[in-house]
Write a structure and sequence with these properties.
This is Probable GTP-binding protein EngB. The protein has one domain: Rossmann fold, CATH 3.40.50.300. 34% of the residues lie in helices and 22% in strands. It is globular, with a radius of gyration of 15 Å. A 7-stranded mixed sheet has the order 1-3-4-2-5-6-7, sandwiched between helices. The chain is of the alpha/beta class and 193 residues long. The chain binds guanosine-5'-diphosphate.
């Protein structure tokens, strides 16, 4: 049990509400419906950890979870694929950019993407922000159970060559649990740096 304790800390919609910027934090990002909540649950071994982030009114907030006094996970608001009001999009954009730019304890970002639709515009935007901060990034190509083995391997290869060095990527499935151990190791590694 690599995560003996995971406790909801707080939800923030602006930087001054963030919990103390101490120790280490790993953030999970992803387009809405990519499978981020399922991935968070599988990696932490919890059934509905990320349900908090899905309660109405919290989907546009950053939800922080404490692993212990010095380590946290941050569930970043999913980027909507449906039309969201421009004002909300602007707020989302500002919040994400400020978070990635200013969070000193941020040890790395996991970007969750549907392996059938990897590297969306949102994903590239996140890669731009993390790249500017030289942050470690790990890509989870999830719902891999929906692809055949050949297809998923080809996707992984293509994604790896597209993002280039410095960004790691793996196949993942919250359903078959394929890649859960590998993902957990990456999160622990980013928390340790
Ligand atoms: P989020 O909006 O990014 O948090 O996405 P969710 O975790 O809520 O997942 C969105 C939908 O995809 C739900 O219907 C999940 O059951 C489904 N889903 C998530 N992960 C997987 C997976 O690994 N395999 C399959 N087949 N479905 C998944």
């Amino acid at each position: 049990p690599q995560f003996p304790s995971v406790e909801f800390l707080t939800s923030s919609w602006q930087p001054r509400q963030f919990p103390a910027d101490v120790g280490a934090e790993v953030a999970f990002a992803g387009r809405s419906n990519a499978g981020k909540s399922s991935a968070l649950n599988a990696i932490t071994g919890r059934k509905d950890l990320a349900r908090t982030s899905k309660t109405p009114g919290r989907t546009q907030l950053i939800n922080f979870f404490a692993l212990n006094e010095q380590q946290r996970l941050a569930d970043l608001p999913g980027y909507g694929y449906a039309k969201v009001p421009e004002k909300m999009r602007d707020h989302w954009r500002q919040l994400m950019e400020r978070y990635v730019e200013t969070r000193a304890s941020l040890g790395g970002v996991v970007i969750v993407m549907d392996s059938r639709h990897p590297l969306t515009e949102f994903d590239w935007q996140m890669l731009e922000w993390t790249g500017a901060q030289n942050l470690p990034v790990h890509l989870l190509l999830t719902k891999a159970d929906k692809l055949g083995r050949g297809e998923s391997m080809a996707t992984l290869k293509k994604v790896r060559s597209t993002v280039g060095e410095g960004v790691t990527a793996q196949l993942f499935s919250a359903v078959s649990k394929a890649g859960v151990d590998e993902a957990r190791k990456e999160v622990l590694k980013m928390l340790a740096t």
